[in-house]
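Why predict the complex rather than its parts? Because the way molecules touch one another can change local conformation, and only a joint prediction can capture that. The input here totals 672 residues.
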Amino acid sequence: MSGPVTIRDVARAAEVSPATVSRTFLRPEKVDPATRERILDAAARLDYRPNRAAQSLITGLTGNIGIVVPDLANPFFPSVVKGIQGRAEELGYSALLVDTDEDLKRESELVAALSRQVDGLVLCSARMADEDLVALREQRPLVLINRQVPGVAAVTFDNEGGIAQEVVHLKALGHRRIGYVAGPSTSYSSRVRQAAATAELAREGLVEVPIGSFAPSFDGGRSAAEKVLLADVTAVMVYNDVMALGLVNQLTRYGISVPNDISVVGYDDIEFASMSNPPLTTVRIPREHAGALAMSYLHALMGSSGPAPEPPARLPTKLVFRGTSVRAPSAPPAGD
Amino acid sequence: MSGPVTIRDVARAAEVSPATVSRTFLRPEKVDPATRERILDAAARLDYRPNRAAQSLITGLTGNIGIVVPDLANPFFPSVVKGIQGRAEELGYSALLVDTDEDLKRESELVAALSRQVDGLVLCSARMADEDLVALREQRPLVLINRQVPGVAAVTFDNEGGIAQEVVHLKALGHRRIGYVAGPSTSYSSRVRQAAATAELAREGLVEVPIGSFAPSFDGGRSAAEKVLLADVTAVMVYNDVMALGLVNQLTRYGISVPNDISVVGYDDIEFASMSNPPLTTVRIPREHAGALAMSYLHALMGSSGPAPEPPARLPTKLVFRGTSVRAPSAPPAGD
DNA sequence: CTGTTAGCGCATTCAT
DNA sequence: ATGAATGCGCTAACAG
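Output of the joint prediction:
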């Protein structure tokens, strides 16, 4: 006879109407303090919990947000997800997670399906076409992370700044011919970083030696090693840390010492960057913070009322100087 | 006037009653092929999507499952989550993810809140008390991963087997005095592995040298280094890979060569185990598979009907012989 | 095989 | 400030 306790049970216990109980939770100020007390009391005593489905049915809101990532096994994403989920928690939302497995088609389908089950979406490093993203944005509040599309809210990273810091760092160490190992050309951030590298290297009067595009994996980095050897460079900038780690690994197998023969700089500052041997010089990007920020922003977008939310953020990046970069072997002694 | 298209719109378009439309989706065989065709057609034309909230309200089911992890930033969990989510996807469920931040109190609260929003739960490496887990199981279908509690379904790993393989491996390499670096004593799997190590080492007639308990982090592993040095051992078994990596790192700083002076064996086979230098000898456990299996099992538990689901699984573990373990320095030449 | 009726639990008019 | 009535979209009996 018990079943889940409903709003009517509480109403009966507090000797009021269901409507008043409802008000007590939604607009407490619109109910007399005394009766409010009585109702809250009864609710607590009966351990009443509003039925989400019923609320949903009537309000059209679910209290859920959706998180979409290309691949949770990619060490870049767990922190981002953690940031989103944590903030969602604080704001009273539950988070639905979807992994698209880097499959563009799946991504579109999954996002479409997911969008109908949530009040808003956070897409991490979305692979979808700009137009699809814009279309999606029409239907649900939407925030992108690590992807920029005109007209869509986004939390991005200052990649140009990060790349610039890498370039200045390597230049200061006396490097002149610098290789760039790119990620997949289908990746938005790879394109951005690649372009930034080309621009910055040119601006600083250094020689860019393009090494090519490789899979953004440890093995992808490894397979770049031969080309790096052939490129006659003293330093290499790599699309991301995982690839950089792979490159260092393979270079070492070839008998090349990193950093003594060749300096290597990664990107992302994943946890393992500092644990590897030697620890990787890289660019730190605030992943978890980005997640939290994106969620905060999404919350503002979902707010029925509220002021116009502040503009999307572009988070700072920071070079972390560790063990895989040193003064160029051929460089003149410091002081020149 | 359009709004979301409802079951009545479809009914009108197909000139049938709403009930028939409903049946067409739930029990297609109970409706005439001709009309079914007509309805499906209309539904497709109108792009009808059933309203989940309404379905939920009536069936009491949400179509969601909950995933709880202690810390997504711990490299152990993303794969597990990926396995769960992927299988959930296939089975038609959406996955709600919660990160408890290793906070026992939060875990209880979050799980309680989450449990009312889902049809079933998968808890990864739950920290909660046995009794709470049993209580939870009364309310919702529940599957544990990497934790065993009497009366609760679970997917576990054959830790005893994994530890036994480590011991045999080290014994074969001529090691006699072997250190064991434990994780936090609050961790279920740490206790299990510790106990297994003690038992196996004894059985093989080797000397166990307990190094102590440390945080299950890179720094935790590092801080075990001094004690390892003092322990006069030729090999160390470590609770998990992250710690093992930290230990190797710090040992190296002390001028100790791994594996030449001391062999180190980790556990878990996280991605970075094979990327580190030297690559870590460790025990592989099928994390993603465990996730998928747990989800399959949960599905069976949630099935209103269906046969009694097969018993929970205990997945095999496998030693992966890589670069941090070699023949003991003091060992007599092979062949003795 | 199909339509009719009823109601899931709640938020929201509109009265009072 | 509170209550009675209505319906969100759908499924589950029961008739026909």
